[in-house]
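ARCHIVE RECORD
Type: protein–small molecule complex
Small molecule: FE2/S2 (inorganic) cluster
Source of inputs: curated submission
Record status: active
Notes field left blank by submitter.
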Amino acid sequence: MAKVSFAVDGKAVSVDVDPNMPLLYALRDDLKMNAPHFGCGEGQCGACTVLLDGEPTRSCVLPVSAAKGRKVTTIYGLGTPKKPHPLQTAYVQEQVPQCGYCVSGWLLTAAAFLKKKPAAGDSELREALSGLKCRCGTHVSIMRAVKRAQKQMA
Amino acid sequence: MKTRTGLSVSRREFLMTSGALIVSAAAPATSENAVAATAATDPLKPALVPGELDSWVAVLKDGRVAAFFGKVDLGQGLDVGIAQIVADELDVAYEKVTVFQGDTANSCNQGGASGSFGINVGAKPLRNAAAEARRILVESAAQRLSVPADRLTVSDGVVSVTGDAAKKVSYAELIGGRFFNAKVEWNKQVGNFMDINVRAKPKQPSEYKVVGKSFPRNDVEGKVFGTSDWVSEVRVPGMLHARVIRPERAGCDPVKVDEASIRSIRGARVVREGNFLAVVAPREWDAVRAAKMLKVEWSASKDPFPPMDKLYEHIRAAKTVKREEPLKKGDVEAVIKTAARVVEAEYEWPFQAHASMGPGCAVVDPRKGRATLWTGTQKPHYARDGVAKILGLPPEEVHGIWVVGPGSYGRNDAGDTAIDAAIVAKLTGKPVRVQSSRAEGIAWCPKGPAGVHRGRAAFDASGKVIGYDFNSKGFSRLNVNSNESDPGDTLGGMEIGMTLKPQDAFGTPEETYGFDNKRLGWEVIAPLLARSSPLRTSHLRDPVGPDIHFASEQFIDELAFAAGEDPVAFRLKYVTAARDAAVIRAAAEKAGWQPRPAQRSRPSGDVLTGRGIAYAQRARTIIAAVAEIEVDRRTGRIWGRKFTVAHDCGLIINPQSLRYTIEGNVVHGLSRVLF
Ligand code: FES
Ligand code: FES
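STRUCTURE (tokenized, with ligand):
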């Protein structure tokens, strides 16, 4: 067991856990976060995505010790109903999620990508989001929402 | 309108309890849930049976309306549609209606999510109940206002005298917070086809004000801002995390379990009953580690499965255990023998895993003489029954609560996980949470059945199809039942020795091609492994529909090609139902379909384009789709560029919900075909 301190959604937190435990379990079990989900635990689906110092990261394969001293952002920290991120607004307007289990991956990956490349074209967006899964097949509305947010952010 | 599921700690309370989402067995906290829970446990409340009006609708003190729905919405807005229907029948504003769904304490068993029946069958008792409630309320208003009922109008829950609006009384005043105590006539069906007969007459579609409009879903914001409840977030004080240990090879049983191999993990231990083996630990990560570390010696298995490339050979050669010919017209064999031309083709369809976005997860909290189940299964009432059997409790002592989980479109692993959790809860006497691993979720979930589909058709000399034979041979689509009410139908149940009662069933194409001689049949072969099989089959969106129509519509294309006719024109020539012809025409027109027969010529260029049309019926809905695709010859990549879908489901309750459902259908179907 080891004490690991980092920030989640702007708040300083610290957990006393097996340092090899993936960050996802610290977020869910120790910090009781609802948003990053366990989809595969193998880095294959994106359901567990968080931003680590702004970079989309699959928390199911990242040892919690690697988060030490860093900034973790979940969709809860991306924006709130009162102060939503444009992507969240667009997601609501386009009514994107079905089950919603995949949302963290798409929102956070798209947010990080649009920050770097605000004027990205269709194929660049597809490329940037290609490693993510949505088993409800909401891809059509995901693209609509991302493009809507992109316009709004321009 | 709101929708509440049974998990009941709001985000605010979640934050107030220092970040811990803690739920107790029966202590719903939000106002809506408090209402539902009191309604459910109020000693004055008539029994929760379909024959009581109070089992379906309630008018709350402030005039809001609660509707109790025995199905669940998986993210397509079914609950919104139900609220719209109830609002219209009762003449209340849509915003006033709250739909409670999937909670065994306040809804009857309408079969859960099932068979695309949510609206077209599942809404019926709610519509009838709302209409009956309105009738009763208007009659009691008539007494109160001393005016005959036919002189009364209702607007947003206020009954007033036509032409004298000052004379009025509200639903809240008439019954708010009290029970109707009115009998309705239950049709004695449990599950999908549960319905009630009432004295009131539901409205005509021309009278609808709310139905037919788009209303947004209720669950989107919570999912987008990270504030919604999930089944995987249910935590009960004192809860153990369990991981079920299953063999890497099918057909193996645990022989020796080395409990010392996980001794280094604090609090971790092994639980076992029969061939059911699991590890538990107070911390989730410890349970995950223990599952990886536990040393188990498995019995040798004679590999029950043929190699993948021999699967279809196996199906073709296997003995048929049951065969049916649901449609038989004329004498197909005779015309095939004498035909001017015979066309034949076969189509192979593999086993398919659900591969939902997350593996199954469930929590079971056993108490003295009762228990609570939190589950993401499509059919919470049935899963409750199964859990009760494992725990040896009467079903009414188990409270089944549906909480959203990863989307499921068929019987995936969610329900089996509920039984797993119940077994571990029984063995430990503690509240237990089970979440499977990804590998387990894919390898061990019930599967869509593999099959070989064969079409044969006879043409006469003029090029007319005079005989048509379509037969599917494969594994049953019901090796395990479509729900978990009998634990023998679940993996855990089989592992503890309960008996599986498999059924032999398949299906035939749902179309109306009017060939003079026609036979549609299916035959089922024995499962490869009789018990605890990772290839046990059940329904997958939709049960055998994709495989059968994939094959039969391709075969229709072969026939159009053989006849030298355009695929749309060919279908229109033979299809007999007017609605079927209309959807085919609508899809073709909208897609800008240029009539021409298919060609065998090989155009040049690296990227080729193609198009196709298919049509089918499903649960009283008729669908035609035109696909425009691209194939990159260099990479082999297939790209579905554009899909045009004509969808006739009858009256549309919520156009936006329908649009999203269709989009999801297309992507889901495409992913099953391409990957
Ligand atoms: S759960 Fe982390 S990538 Fe799937
Ligand atoms: S919405 Fe269900 S997995 Fe994406």
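CURATOR ANNOTATION: Chain B is about 30% helix and 25% strand.
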